[in-house]
């Protein structure tokens, strides 16, 4: 698990938003290795990938329901527990089994695409109120996903999630740990070193054929798509979307001119524009700078994510996580390799490794409901989760807005607004 990100690969053709797709194959490979008494070692991967590899987590139910064993299991299980499944749901299931026609309440993809986030959220509230209650109305991607699942299966995504969480070892984050004897090695380095490495990696992309790759991807998959397809899947992955401004403005001819220019200066792109440089290079430079920025941001997010989901999980089975410091590469043997070997051998020989696993941390919001949507009537904003909601109610921004409203009401002679406790957030401490 490294903060260096796979998404940097500019023509990554994996559906990165669908870890289950990736996992269907890797789980078989792992099982094969285990049954041959070999130790599977998985290197790299995004956090979502690692999470759905280790836990039976429903990050994203497969689009094609019939093609997925895991989804079928959930469906079968939902069917067999007829006592707890709603009769209405069973009915819909039966309808679909016997009749392939579109259910009457289905909305076409085209229609969904033209709907505003609010309309989509309202629609989701109708078919899957539990999911609607968990998702921010602006989270169009997840709302669409939930609607898709409902349309394709006739089952709200929240039912799939509920089923999975109810398995032994399951919890609010998903199902149980798939492989009970797992060790996690986290290769880390200090933030400065990390930023430098990330920048270098972006810089080396030009040398490694970035331009032909993104051009090819753009010509093949993107040009023909409608504008709102840009918000979906691979097109949003880091390492491609940053180059769209350049790709749209310049063509392949300019790529060649720029590449020839860069070749002559050994791909050492000057930080600021120089007089002799070809047209388009400055825009490309800006795209690369943008990529550096989002990559840094993403790496910080990943680190936070590990802290929250691995170290801050109070109710989840988490394998021991060991931090290995890669900041000084000249100390690789002492700081990374030897401790890693010792940790792995210790586990095999059932003794205590010299390195201690990272300690779990208590997130200030742990224990609070993360899956509830609150709306502040004063600020006209939605908040997902009790933690964010409490932060908001205690924030100066909210207090100022509340005072402003109170003054306006007074001026208008409206008296107090104290009677609307739920509206002004009086449940929070004052
Ligand atoms: Zn507010």
UniProtKB/TrEMBL annotation:
Pfam families noted in UniProt: IPPT, zf-C2H2_jaz
Gene Ontology MF annotations: ATP binding; tRNA dimethylallyltransferase activity; zinc ion binding
Keyword set, alphabetical order: ATP-binding, Metal-binding, Nucleotide-binding, Transferase, Zinc, Zinc-finger
Domain Zinc finger double-stranded RNA binding per the UniProt entry, residue ranges: 375-399
Name listed for the protein in its UniProt record: Zinc finger double-stranded RNA binding domain-containing protein
Protein's GO biological process: tRNA modification
Taxonomic lineage of the native organism: Eukaryota, Metazoa, Ecdysozoa, Arthropoda, Hexapoda
Domain of life: Eukaryota
Keyword Zinc-finger: yes
Protein family according to the UniProt entry: Belongs to the IPP transferase family.
């Amino acid at each position: 698990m490294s903060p260096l990100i796979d998404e940097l690969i500019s023509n990554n053709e994996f559906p990165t938003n669908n870890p289950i797709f990736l996992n269907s194959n890797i789980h078989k490979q792992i099982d094969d290795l285990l049954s041959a008494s070999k130790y599977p070692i998985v290197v790299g991967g995004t956090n979502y990938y690692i999470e759905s590899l280790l836990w039976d987590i429903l990050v994203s139910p497969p689009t094609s329901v019939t093609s997925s064993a895991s989804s079928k299991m959930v469906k079968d299980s939902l069917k067999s527990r007829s006592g707890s499944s709603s009769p209405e749901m069973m009915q819909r299931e039966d309808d679909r089994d016997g009749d392939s026609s579109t259910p009457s309440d289905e909305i076409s993809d085209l229609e969904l695409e033209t709907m505003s986030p609010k309309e989509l959220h309202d629609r989701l509230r109708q078919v899957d109120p539990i999911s609607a209650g968990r998702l921010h109305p602006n989270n169009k991607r997840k709302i669409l996903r939930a609607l898709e699942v409902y349309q394709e299966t006739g089952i709200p995504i929240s039912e799939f999630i509920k089923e999975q969480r109810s398995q032994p070892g399951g919890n609010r984050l998903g199902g149980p740990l798939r492989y009970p004897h797992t060790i996690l090695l986290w290769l880390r380095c200090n933030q400065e070193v990390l930023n430098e490495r990330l920048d270098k990696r972006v810089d080396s992309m030009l040398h490694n054929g970035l331009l032909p790759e993104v051009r090819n991807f753009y010509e093949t998959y993107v040009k023909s798509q409608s504008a709102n397809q840009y918000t979906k899947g691979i097109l949003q992955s880091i390492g491609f979307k940053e180059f769209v401004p350049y790709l749209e403005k310049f063509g392949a001819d300019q790529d060649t001119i720029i590449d020839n220019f860069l070749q002559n200066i050994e791909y050492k792109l000057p930080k600021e524009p120089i007089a002799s440089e070809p047209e388009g290079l400055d825009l490309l430079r800006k795209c690369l700078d943008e990529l550096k920025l989002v990559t840094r941001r993403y790496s910080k997010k990943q680190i936070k994510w590990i802290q929250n989901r691995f170290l801050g999980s109070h109710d989840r089975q988490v394998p021991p996580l060991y931090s290995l410091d890669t900041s000084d590469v000249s100390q690789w043997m002492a700081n990374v390799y030897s401790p890693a070997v010792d940790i792995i051998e210790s586990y095999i020989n059932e003794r205590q490794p010299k390195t201690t696993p990272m300690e779990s941390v208590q997130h200030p919001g742990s224990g609070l409901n993360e899956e509830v949507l609150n709306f502040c009537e004063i600020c006209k904003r939605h908040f997902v989760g009790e933690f964010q909601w409490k932060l908001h109610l205690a924030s100066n921004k909210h207090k100022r807005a509340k005072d402003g409203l109170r003054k306006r009401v007074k001026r208008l002679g409206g008296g107090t607004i104290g009677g609307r406790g739920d509206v002004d957030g009086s449940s929070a401490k004052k």
